[in-house]
Each structure stands twice: as structure tokens, then as C-alpha cells.
Amino acid sequence: MSKRSAEDQLNNINNGNSQVKTTQNSVPKIEQVEDSNVEIGEFEDPYGDDFESDEEIIELDEEQEDENMDEEKVEDQEEVRIESSIYLPHKSKPLGPDEVLEADPSVYEMLHNINLPWPCLTVDILPDNLGNERRSYPQTVYLTTATQAAKNKDNELITMKASSLVKTLIKDEEDDSDSDDDEDMDSDPILDTETIPLKHTTNRIRVNPNSQITGEYLTSTWSESGEVLIFDLSSQYKAFDSPGYMIPKSSKRPIHTIKSHGNVEGYGLDWSPLISTGSLLSGDLTGRIYLTNRTTSNWTTDKTPFFASNSSIEDIQWSPNENTVFASGGTDGYIRIWDTRSKKHKPALSVSASSSDINVLSWCNKINHLLASGHDDGSWSVWDLRNFKPETKPSPVANYNFHKSAITSISFNPLDESIIAVSSEDNTVTLWDLAVEADDEEISQQRKELKELHDIPPQLLFVHWQKDVKDVRWHKQIPGCLVSTGGDGLNIWKTISV
Which residues form the Histone-binding protein RBBP4-like N-terminal domain (predicted)? Predict the structure, then answer.
């Protein structure tokens, strides 16, 4: 996975929510923030502000009114034609100098933007005790991220509680009925944060999925220094809901540091979903994967790494149903399946899956034999692991080349095995429904009526624009809710499509 320096990322922090394209090959222009002391937690209005005019009202005669009405009709017709077209940021004609790219509130059920002081390349969600299948509003989300600051001393691990997250759907003007929660819908979102100072930038952050069960919010970070830090964020989580609670100083330091990688950094990082006490895999740029387990008294890391080639390990995924099996993807284009019981620490299977780097992986937790991979050439695939056999090159069960830049994150929806979220360096997050058939009558009719749909896969559900998006995560307790991070901060969103 390609990496950008903190200085480059800083130049792409968004100072507003409107983005404008300026040249044919450019992405929407972002104004540079000159003041680095941006406060954490400034929620943006994703739809801009409305301004009332204080100009003098001039009365028109009938002839002028008729002329103006004719002009308005022409303008309205032009607007209708413009609105009927489909705009894809990385495929459509670039916007003109006076055109602005804005989110359409009618296609989002929820959309909230959070400004951050520095770019963050990674994000993860903290499981909470507010219940599963939460569909009513306002919503609350707990999450954690870590920074890519220009100076090492400015880096932080940031834990957040975003509450009072309301719907952003446009209310029907004809609907005058009162709702019991109208008062809640008018409230502003609230963000509480707790920070932990870090000495280096963070490549990836992951939270133990068993935290809700154990009460220990074990969180690991892959540091640019080559260290893997393990924190327990349970005190930070408690502080959000316990007014006056003081976080102990010991909770602002890592409870363990993995130094087996030396000074070699990496990206591959994953907690086992089946070993609640804590079992962590970390893979580095030299192709080494270390397994760290928690014992009754401390943490132990195997001295012998899992190793197959010198190519960088870009992502790691534990199996959702076998507690000794995991998959890895790397810059050599191979997907490898490993078993931690192997005394030789060699892969059980190696499959050539891409002619470019494999940047990211996602193992479906509902259909255990499905694994998705995202590649550096912009393509992504879904594999049936039952077809993985030695000395063979299986074909993916699905493959898409819609994105034109490297895939930066891929994730199966934990509540719907047919839905996948994919983020790319083309500044978009796309949602896909693999259950859609290409010969569906309704889709076929739409493709006939709109020429823009001809080269768009029928499985594509939604396109979300976000500058320099790097990581996207599904919220397992709020159906359809995603959190994505990029150069312009965090987005918490849910579309009407999922």
C-alpha cells in the first residue's frame, strides 16, 4: 500500500465542505490549513449554510414579470437536465472553475463530518453497550484513530464518542405531522474526545472485537517506528459516560510494546475474533508476521515469525470460524493462508491473486469461505477459499475494475454477506451488492434509459466522495452505518441504499 508523508497529507486537510475541481486530471481542490492548531471535534454542516438576502426589494411590472418567468422556466429546465445526469468523481467530466461538488442529502440517511488536527490514515470502531440492531435516531458512535502529524511530538491516539447524530434526510415540505423525536432531530451533534500522546505516526489501528464481552478495550497501533503498541482504552470509554471520572495516568501508556519487528514498520494488523483474551498478528515490510498472545500474567510474542517471501505484508485477516487460521496479502500479489500450529511457520496455501500489490483483505464472517481482496491497480476480487488448492491458480467468483486508483480498504458488511464497502485513492468509497443479477429487469431498463449506466456494473449501489480516503469500517451494531477516514477528517454516514 502506498504511503504518503505527513507533510503531503497536511496539505490536503479540508477547510470546508465544498470541493471544486480545477483541471481535467485533478481531484477537487482543497484549501490548505495554515493554522495547525485545529480543534478536534468540529462537526461540519455537510450541506453548507443558507443565507438570507438583505437587498432592496424592487417591484416589477407585468411585462418584466413575464420575461423573468420565461427565463426562470429555461433555468429550471436546465437544472432538471443537470440533475438527471450521473456524476462520478473519477469518471465524469471534471467540474468547471465555478462548479462545486456537494453531497446530495436526499441519498443519505445520516452524514456527519468531523475535523481533525492532522490527517489520520486509519480508524476503528469501539463496540458499545447500547444494544445491537440500532435503527432509531439520534445515534451514538464510539471510535478511535491516530494521527500522521508533521512533527513526531504532535502525534496522538484519539478516542471519541460522537453522540446526538441525527438523520440528515430532507423532510417533505408537505409533511406537517409532528414527531415525538422532532426535538432530538433538531439538536446539534456532540463530540467528546480523550487523547494519548504518541511519539510517532500510526499506520494502522485495530480494536479487539471482543472488547464488549471482556470489558477491556484492547487496541493496537502499528507505529512508523516499527513498534506495535497495545493500549487498554477501557478507562477512556468509561470517562465518556461517567461525569467526573479521572482517567489514571497508567491508562495513557501502552500496556505492552511488541519490538520483534526491530525498526521495520508495517501495515498488517488484526485481532483474533475467536480468542477473547487477546491474540494479535502483525506483519511488516520485510514479509515477517509475528503472533502475540496474552497469558495470565503478560504478553508473549513467538520468536519465530511466519515467513514466505521478502515482500511487504500489507494486510492480515484472522479466520472468523477457525482460531488457528489466518490470511495475508502482500506486495508480491499473493494471498496466503496460514495455520498457527505449523511448526515450520510456512503458509498452507499460496495463491497468485493479482499482478499488482494486494493492499487489503476482508474475510466474510457470515460465509466463511469468502475472502475479498483489494489491489494496487484499482481492481478488487472476491474469492471462494474452497477453490484454493496447491499448484493452482483459481479464478475469483467476482472481480471489478471500476476504480482507477489503488484500493485502500475493503470490508464485508458484518450484517449482510452480499454487501461490500471499498475505498480507493480516487477519493471515493463505493458500496456493492453482490446479490444483484446483471439481467435484473429493472436494472436493464435503467441502463437503457440512462447512457451513463452502460459502463457501470449493476452491482454498484452507491458512491461516497471523501478526499484521500484511506480506511472504512462498518458499525456492527448500527445496520448500514460506516465510518471512513481521509485527508479531510472523519465521516460517519449511512446511505438509503443499505
Answer: 98-165
What H or E segment, with its residue span, contains residue 263? none
Residues constituting the chain: 498
Which string of b and e fits 151-178 if b means at least 16 CB within 10 Å?
eeeebbbbbbbbbbbbbbbeeeeeeeee
**Tens digits of residue pLDDT in 175-200:** 444 555 555 556 789 999 999 999 99
What are the beta bridge partners of residue 57? none
Quote the cell numbers at residue 234.
477501557
**R_g over Cα of the chain:** 24
- Residue 486, judged by CB atoms within 10 A of its CB (0-12, 13-18, 19+), counts as buried
Q: Which grid coordinates are listed for 370?
A: 469468502
pLDDT of residue 456: 85
Least confident of 89-93, 126-130, 230-234, 385-389: 89-93
Which pLDDT score is estimated for 73?
A: 55
Q: Backbone phi, then psi, for 409, in 5-degree steps? A: -160, 150
SS3 at position 267:
strand
Classify each residue of 407-445 as buried b or exposed e, where b means 16 or more C-beta atoms within 10 Å of its C-beta: bbbbbbbbbbbbbbbbbbbbbbbbbbbbeeeeeeeeeee
Domain boundaries, the chain: 117-225+227-260+476-481
Task: Label residues 338-373 b or e (16+ Cβ within 10 Å = b).
Answer: bbbeeeebebebbbebbeebbbbbbbbbeeeebbbb
Neighbours of 1 (CB within 10 A): 24
Please write the tens of the pLDDT for every residue from 401-414.
999 899 999 999 99
Q: In what order do the strands lie in the sheet with 190-197?
A: 123-125, 139-146, 156-165, 190-197
